[in-house]
Amino acid sequence: MIEHPEQVALYPAQKIGRLANTSETTIIRLCQDLGYNGYKPLQEALQAQMITDESESSNDLLGRFEMKTNTLKHEQDLIEYEKYNALFDLKETFETVSQQTLHRFVSAITSAEEIVVIGLRTSFSAAHWLTYSLNALKGNATLYRSGIDENIHLLNRTSEKTVLIAFSFSRYTKETLTFTRAAKSRGATVLAIIDEHRAPIHEIADCSMIAGKQDSIVPSKRMISLFAIIHLLLSALSVNDYESVAKHLNDYEKANLSVSPFI
Fold this sequence. Notes:
This protein is α/β, with parallel strands linked by helices.
């Protein structure tokens, strides 16, 4: 627990017992001797401490790289470690999403005449995938692409019937914030998918979801939580607007086969 607290924060008591060459019962008794009611309270305390430590070092790229690399060096089973790490991230992400927030997102998307999706730099792939998926389900989504004149026309047709879905993660881009403010001033409903409530775009959003902090030496770690949130939104949208989605999927498939038949 002292040498590898990150393992205790991620792994169940049974696995910690195996790693320490002892039993699960002994691990639980140790937790009780330390003043906890069992293994889970100790694990939650370590998880909270890990989040605090990572937040404090979030602006120190080299320090974060060294910390994560040193952790991975001591892992005998990297696959197992990353599996539990991913499960922890997913659990933390879904616990931040309330039914009320999900309902507000889905209701806004369902009633929108036009949906604009913006996400730059590391969030562009998520924005692109969400746009593609929304067009498959609804057919009224447009992806904001940086540096093209079409964005002016996109802004000109923005109104109170427009929903803007904005991805914004540290380090936050000015372009995303500028376009979102302009769309908001024209009456658009802003739905933000962010890494934390301190994100600048959260202040102007009508509703926000948190999709995991970036605390890894590789940008892909956030994508686990990010694409899980996208999947949640699409699933909820399909259930909430079933008849419309089913009709559009059928029309989409017919059109797709007529111009791009599969081999």
